[in-house]
Write a structure and sequence with these properties.
six-stranded antiparallel sheet, 4 helices, 6 strands, 25% helix, 36% strand
């Protein structure tokens, strides 16, 4: 699996812990930012999703830290739909340094929440494909 979509982030000094490396919680913030950029690159802005009465929800996240990041480092945070079935979509997020070294990997399970019924949609991939202006960004070509 490649990394077709990514966003570059530069780590900031105030995001580091006492050991001088990026605080573990900040990885989740970077991942959230990248997921929204991923959706928006496909044309799935917050307004588009809200107008459709749905919202993405993170149901599970598993992080594997592989290399420390320090203040001032740059990291490319990728997003790729890697699987899932039914109500669930699996998303892999790789954190790669500009020279391609893996710093972390987050494996997520997400769904689309119907904001009226507060229930997960039965086929989130079909909904994303239908609403996206560029479904190919998500790897959801028709």
């Amino acid at each position: 699996m490649g990394q077709p979509f990514s966003v570059r982030v530069q780590t900031r000094a105030y995001e580091t812990d006492r050991q001088g490396h990026l605080n573990q919680a900040v990885y989740m913030q970077y991942a959230e930012h990248a997921r929204w950029q991923f959706l928006q690159a496909a044309g799935l802005t917050p307004d588009v999703l809200s107008d459709a009465g749905i919202g993405p929800v993170l149901l599970k996240a598993s992080v594997r830290f592989q290399r420390e990041l320090r203040a001032g480092d740059e990291v490319d945070v990728g997003c790729a739909i890697s699987g899932g079935q039914g109500k669930l979509v699996e998303l892999t997020q790789r954190f790669l340094t500009p020279d391609g070294i893996s710093a972390a990997r987050i494996d997520c399970v997400i769904g689309l929440l119907d904001l009226t019924t507060r229930r997960l949609l039965p086929d989130p991939r079909a909904t994303l494909r239908e609403l996206a202006k560029q479904p190919d960004v998500l790897g959801l070509d028709a």
